[in-house]
Amino acid sequence: MKVLAFGAHPDDLEIGMGGTIARYTTRGHEVLMVVATVPNRREERVQEAEEAASILGADLVVMDVVPDELVFSRQLVRRFDQIYSGFGPDVVYTHSNNDSHQDHAAVTNAVIATTRKNDCSVYMYEQTIPGGIAPNPFRGQYYVDVSDTIMLKLDAIMAHRTQLDTYGPWWLEGVKGRAMYYGFKINVKYAEIFEVIKDIALW
Hints:
The protein is α/β, with parallel strands linked by helices. It has one domain: Rossmann fold. 44% of the residues lie in helices and 19% in strands. Helix 5 (150-158) runs antiparallel to helix 7 (170-185).
């Protein structure tokens, strides 16, 4: 299986679905992580993103969209189209379309446009740590047991040292606690959840 995962910034994918990425790769599936923009400290953050992707066993593309130009547009959709057609995924992941961060929203709108006519499943992950509170709740229906890969997720997040400096160790505790909460709901230790845009059976 080929999995394409979009995030607006370095660390977004690790926070939202790092355990699921590691679950895919440890089972022999191919994952391509795509980062749309690097808003600051570019050299450091790209290096951190590369290290995190390596921990998760995934490949990485940093698109380098200028931060102020990361808006939902024909140009952004065309660039996503090129990545999509070049990779040929079976499954695509992106931010929630109710995310209050403007960069996250722009990425998801472009992903939805890119996948509108294609034969792939599309899921959205939750990105609220750190992040703003949105008026519409995240309605996750699809649960993934990440008990075996939670440490890879946390190690990948810790690779983003610039962000650890900003948010402190409670950041990791929040991410881990959320995974424990979702795991408790399905009687496993840790889980990640996703909203389903479309789910196409691969068997």
